[in-house]
Write a structure and sequence with these properties.
Blueprint lengths: L2 H14 L21 H5 L13 H17 L5 E5 L5 H12 L7 E5 L15 H6 L3 H4 L3 H10 L7 E5 L2 H4 L8 E6 L4 H11 L3 E9 L5 H14 L6 E2 L5 E4 L3
Keywords: Antibiotic biosynthesis, Magnesium, Metal-binding, Methyltransferase, S-adenosyl-L-methionine, Transferase
Pathway: Antibiotic biosynthesis
GO molecular function, one term: methyltransferase activity
């Protein structure tokens, strides 16, 4: 890729996280601050009022690392994110493909586009889960809004595919053939397990699994149980204090 492409991606990662203008965060039960701080935005510690992603600069750069490594190594498959909010991560992933001149891979967006489900008791840690859906006025972003966000970047095309609905309904029959990178940001035990069970078998050897919410006990429990059940020993690597990823072995 030419230097101009690298500069485009350097700028795009700052735009989707809005490190440039530094919009004020939306205060909530977990992050009550009302003023932008660079440290919080770098580490994905706030809920931006304007930015198209809340994952922060470190996690955006991890997406770039994983996807560009997969491209460089010829790992077959698409990119998917489960839980997309305003679409910023997937916008960035589509930008990476465009900057590299890749026209035969897709970016899949799986989301309810209604927010977090009220799962009810199911025998798994529920404190985080039961609280998150109470913030759906912020967390629930419509598919039309996400499509409009893609269009703002001139990145809405047939390489961008939407999977609207609850994961338990959409992922088992999703028309995804192979994956090179799967990024899970569903917060809950059930959402994380649904994604792992249905998508990991489609992940090519050498592909990457990114877990945004590993700090949440319910999410971590799902990851640990799945890895143990499947005998996965590929090492977990920290992205920041909240998220991890691993690369699938042969």
């Amino acid at each position: 890729m030419e230097a101009s492409g690298q500069l485009y991606l350097d700028l795009l990662e700052k735009v989707v996280t809005n490190m440039i203008y530094g919009d004020a965060p939306t205060p909530n039960a977990w992050v009550p601050e009302t003023s932008f701080t660079r440290e919080h935005r770098e580490n994905g510690l706030d809920w931006p009022s304007t930015a198209h992603t809340m994952v922060g600069l470190k996690r955006i750069r991890n997406v770039r690392h994983c996807l560009e490594q997969a491209l460089a190594d010829g790992v077959a498959g698409d990119f998917i994110e489960t839980g997309v909010w305003r679409g910023g991560v997937c916008i960035f992933a589509r930008g990476i493909l465009k900057a590299h001149g890749v026209s035969d891979r897709r970016v899949w967006l799986a989301d309810s586009f209604e927010g977090i489900p009220d799962t009810g008791p199911d025998g798994h840690p529920m404190d985080q889960e039961m609280a998150l859906h109470q913030s759906n006025e912020v967390l629930g972003v419509s598919m039309e809004t996400v499509r409009d966000n893609f269009a703002r970047y001139d990145l809405l095309d047939d390489q961008v595919q939407f999977l609207p609905g609850w994961f338990e309904d959409t992922l088992p029959t999703a028309p995804v053939e192979k994956l090179a990178v799967m990024r899970l940001d569903g917060d809950l035990y059930s959402s994380t397990m649904d994604a792992l069970v249905n998508l990991y078998p489609k992940l090519s050897p050498g592909g990457f699994v990114i877990i945004d919410d590993y700090v949440i006990p319910a999410c971590r429990k799902a990851v640990e149980e799945f890895r143990e059940t499947e005998g996965i020993e590929d090492p977990l690597e920290a992205i920041d204090d909240y998220s991890v990823f691993w690369r699938r072995g042969a």
